[in-house]
Amino acid sequence: MKPDSSPPHPAPRRRFLKTIGAGALAAPFAASCASLAPRGAALQPIRGSWISVWWDDRRHVYWNDACLRFTADQWQAAVEDAADIGMEYLVLLAIAKGGRAFYDTPLLPKLEMACPDPIEAMLAAADRRHVKFFISSDWYAEWDAQALSSPDRARKRFQMMEEIARRYSHHPSFHGWYWPNEASLSPYFADAFIAYVNASSREARQLTPKAKTLTAPYGTNRAVCDDRFVLQLERLDVDIVAYQDEVGCLRMTPAQSEQAFAVLRRAHDRVPQRALWADVEVFAWEGPPNRQATPLIPAPWDRVRAQLEAVSPYTDTILIYQYQGLMNRPGTGAFAGHPDSTRLYLDYAGWRSTIRKGRQWGRI
User: Fold this and answer.
1) CATH: 3.20.20.80, 2.60.40.1240, 1.10.3720.10, 3.30.390.50. Which one for 43-356?
2) CA atoms within 13 A on the CB side of 230
């Protein structure tokens, strides 16, 4: 996921922009939406995160190997740690990657892991802790020009969805689906992306009628709220749009993120059936940014705090990319990530305890 990408590759969790300076950013906000919405909402805590089993490049190098060694008990502890710090939602990044599946399927060979079924282990823990999971619908194969439009790819995607629903949808924690072929706002959604989301949501309703659906676009720095974008939101058959704040990818500052989410708030207020969530990037880079060969490390707390403060007045729920690897409870039995991840955890935990006192958290 998240580190960044741009057209023609609409998959920021797989491909990245070349380094882009914050000073060169452009955000053509529509004049009718440019002013900030009233700042009445309280500060919001982090209410969820992406989580991954494995990813096939160096961005996840600090936690990939540890997660492959996790036992079922450790996968359950990872979910419990997230719940203990207030995470109500977890979004599974992928159900396969690099030509290997994370569960037993005739479509692909299985990734070698210490735990025979990490998805089952995570959902079992989520059941106990009342955490709601969004489960990815991919990756049968890597993103390419045919990923959205190929009938064969769609059939494989739907077959994997059917398998996932059959194996796991009995869990109370199976809350919804995540459509991981993410779109770029440029500043509008491509028609192929809308068709992909709508076809996936139709399939999801057949398999799991009560499940919610979520996608997480990038290109947020180009947000508009004109009639064309509002019409696209009406056409887009998805319950939740969690826009990436793009601060970790250096496409916006927290102040620019605030302006973008104010614009999106006005657009979503015109289409209230599409919930507006934030996907806040809590990573920095251990080397040149926005490259698949550069490991992700925890961002400085002062920056993360500014990001949370920026989006709180305008968004319904704040997710992050990501707790796993970038935040770890000191002493956890499921440690996976950079050594500084305990510091970010403690900084956030202290801030969270202060904003809880005498305050009502924002919209929901």
Assistant:
1) 3.20.20.80
2) 15
